[in-house]
Prior knowledge:
The protein is α+β, with helices and mostly antiparallel strands. The protein has 2 domains: about 5-190 and about 330-410, Zn peptidases (Aminopeptidase, 3-Layer(aba) Sandwich), CATH 3.40.630; about 195-325, Alpha-Beta Plaits. About 35% of the residues lie in helices and about 25% in strands. It has 12 helices and 18 strands. The strands form 5 sheets. It has a 6-stranded mixed β-sheet with strand order 1-2-6-3-7-17. Helix 2 crosses helix 4 (about 115-135) and helix 10 crosses helix 12. The mean pLDDT is about 95.
Amino acid sequence: MEGRKADLLQRIESDREVLLDFLRGFIRCPSPNPPGDTREAADHIRRLLELHGAEYRVIAPNEVMPNIVATFEGGKPGRHLALNGHMDCFPVGDGAGWTHDPWGAELIDGRIYGRGACDMKCGTTASVFTYLYLRELRDELCGRLTLSAVSDEETFGPYGARYLSEHHPEVFGDTCLNGEPSSPWTLRFGEKGPLWLEFSVRTKGAHGAYTHASKSATAIAAKIIGALEALEDIPAPEASNIAAALDLAAPAIDRAQGPGAARNTRRVTVNPGVVRGGLKVNMVASDCTFEVDVRLPIGLDAPQILAEVDKIVALYPEVTYRQINYNPPSWCPPDAEMAQLVRANAKEIAGIDPVPIVSLGGTDARLWRYKDVPAIVYGPSPTGMGSVDENVMVEEFFHVVKCHVLSAYDYMSRPG
């Protein structure tokens, strides 16, 4: 690698301690969602931008959930690239099961431990430094670069990227690069759609010995949960280019996300994540509420699923349900320009050719795809994501930073 890209790689190497210190400091800014307070994490980013003289806006429809937006214009006309990452992370509760301080950012044996390490303070750090490095070269670049570091992603909430989508669409640009966890061996061009449903079961209830006197709300709930598993048999039609990409990607998907992930990428999955019901073991339960997370593959939409749910619920007059969240599946061409740039740079940097895949989990990248803007996700392995001892490998962190910087540079070096 020669020229400006070689210079950028050398800059990243010389800034290793700066990058590590920023990431570890970022992890030490607790930002669990819920409750979603990201003010400390946002201040951490703001201080770095101010240190480099980079102007920014704070857009905060909820004062404890600020969004930071920074933009610069290149010296030549061209396209608009968006870098997006979020600052909030999963909660840790009382920290049970963790062997490292969830907010300690301990560096042990080449790994940094802490909540948000891989999801996604690694990727957001890559976006921030990509923005700063390219800003220094802005006179020779084409088009515009926008950084959005947002809040409220973990709950698909309304105060982060969704708010920007609805009220500040000018930040979305022509292409998006996002650093959510993917693993170095895969990049994400699409994602499944989460459909969250809440069911309520109400009966008269009775003494536990008088099962003849009332139906059990918890027993009915169990039957419905069992019946909902039939949703997993609904076939999903696939466009030929998506089917071909996923056929080729199956081994890489299982490597990155665990055995069985490739199969789940292409089918409906049903997870009864929350069940609450009954008062006492010797009482027939009079109420039960449960929430189900249904994930839709590309090719299916909510009405097809809800029609089947209605058939199940119709058998139980004691049951009502409501939709509490839905984000349709999203995708862009698996051979989109940014996907090709990331693959080429990953191969040159580390000999890795990341395979285009569809994500099981949701990201803010979907909001760009809903606007027909190609959005590519490339980040670290999802090690401990949403679980205990979340961590990121130091070398994966630097690999992600390098790929983002070089891919964004390649994109902005072309007038388009």
